[in-house]
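Recall that a protein's primary structure is simply its ordered list of amino acids. Everything else, from secondary elements to tertiary packing, is in principle encoded there. The following example makes that idea concrete.
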Amino acid sequence: MRCDRSANLPAYMKLNGRPVVFMFGVDAFYIDWSRVRSSIPGNPLFILRGNSGLSSASADGGFSWVNIQTPMPFNPELNLQDSFFQTAQKAPQKVAVGAAFKGFNDTLASWGTDRVIDQDCGQTWIQSLNEIGKFHSTGNQLPILQIPTWNDYEEGTAIEMGIDNCAFLAPSQSGSTISWAVNGQENTIDHYTVFISTDGQNLSPLIDIAAGTHSVDLSKLQLSANTTYLVFVKAVGLPSIQNKMSPPIAYHAGDQPPTVSLNISQTTGLSYTASTSATGKVAKSVIDFGDGTVVTGTSASHTYSAVGKYLITATVYDSAGASSVDVQQISAKPSGGGVNISSPNNSATVNWPTPIVASANTGSSVSAMQVLVDGVVAYATHGDTVNTAIKVFTGAHQIQVQALDSSGNAMGSTSLNVDAEPSDAPPIAKITLTAMPQISPTTFLGCTAGSTDPDGLVNSRKLQFSDGSKFSSPAALETFPAPGTYKATATVIDNLGGTNTTTVTFNVP
């Protein structure tokens, strides 16, 4: 919707009665700001991306965004957020719009360049919010907080589905007390809610328990002694953090169910055998492999279809229907030693998105895995498996996968070679030069926005004048030192890495 038509609508965002117009990257163009302002009613506030909005005379403020300057997925680069707020403190007359984000991953974006900030199981979200508290408080409030959540641009920033905190719960029973073990970082959890149900489908909230407390005494809650209840515990996440529900245990007052231990062993490839051992009389045993496969019995074998993490849950019941559970998380992966790349194959021809499936069995605990293309990190994740997709740009490349310890040191690695995007058609570079005598007799506007790509899009542009000036924006305003003959060279790169360069010669009067 056009700003000149929507700024007067009741739902349009306003600050102190003035419509707020956010502009993403337009400061790279030559813009007649007086003309733009006059076209939008209501004396609008122009907010540009980043620190430039806080220093530009044409802008009323700036907004922070996800900034990625280094290929280090486990570094949320909060120092760049700090730089934004520090600049804002020096320009109190400007509007500063902060940002909080869960992470970033543009490997599936058509325009992406393998930029990743790991979500770190919700810690990135919490840290980005806490960073604002270094500069603002209840007495000095941030005027606007913006949450980058461009799910339609495949940036991996969307929070609508909730942020996974990687936590899971394992409940247990001792007498009338229900307890639960928390696997994961509890600072992502707001509180716990205990539910009961008689049919496993219709749940009734029983009591809320503060985070840090992991048990409840059901004898104090006046439950019927003649009914067997299914008890669930839900870890209620902090705002925007996903809730996690435990598997149920069946509770019957006065009945102590058998206790269960889950034993898991790998047979071959992605095949695993799970078995239960229990103390007490067991009427039924059920094993849930965490991928939709549920087997009744004390032992079962299962082959997973994909490398990754799975929760296996064993439940045992006594004759009265009371039950207990054991929950374990496994990494389903090939059994061979060292680092293994299952996909792609060596010497393969690959196209975007390129699947990367890898795992590590190093003999020591693996903290994380990272994928490098020609020595530059393109992706990383916690754990000992990788099952993702990245973009490998056109041409011959080496893909390497490393297993890392908790300090980030490589414990093992393997590599292979691929040929990427052999059918990519290169872009077509174009330069338009326009004299700007209203600025000065020797000022020209160079523009590469007319560059095209026959089978994709132009991802980046570089413009260099023969006087030594260099620009990476679609438009560049240059005032030359003297009249004469000059050259302008444009280099454009498409979304798959194809490159094209053109040079034009022109006269400055």
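Residues 168-331 form a domain with the Immunoglobulin-like fold (CATH 2.60.40.10). The chain has four domains: 3-153, 168-331, 338-420, 432-508.
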